[in-house]
Amino acid sequence: MEREEASGEKPTVRDAPEVRRAQDLCVRLLSVRARSRTELRQAMARKEVEEEVAELVLGRLDRAGLIDDEAFAHEWVASRHNHRGLSKRALADELRRKGVDGSVAAEAVAAVDEDSELERARELVRRKLSSVARFDDTTKLRRLVGVLARKGYPEGMAVRVVREELSRSGTPGLPDDDF
Known about the structure:
The chain is mainly alpha-helical and 179 residues long. 65% of the residues lie in helices and 0% in strands. It folds into 3 domains: 13-63; 69-109; 114-168, Arc Repressor Mutant, subunit A, CATH 1.10.10.
């Protein structure tokens, strides 16, 4: 960017083709789904966009209202909880990995109440019941608790929900000392 144009003036960062390339990259990413500021910064870094250019582009996108980490966090939580069945803990971990500020993430995750989390856990277990029908009761319990654990549900809640759903489905007396 130190080169001089034919007019004898140095081009500014704002006029550089790299700015256009960075903007195009960010707009393309944002057209697929909302992204956090950190995600966009990391995407530009992967494409070797200079930090000065990245900050300029992020500032422009911010002023245009295209970057909003708070709105992103709320949208992410609603989507991932409803469609993937992730627990509050798993959602907070994902937001942290995406570079969302801890207080913003906590506020977004707080939108998932305990009743909603329990109901989502029950739905996940009900959906998996048929796939564990051929196993003995202890294996059913272990596998279904594993499903919930991978979605970030606390062990105590997972065991309680699985026991309740197995009981509702007609699985007789599960041993109490398994977990």
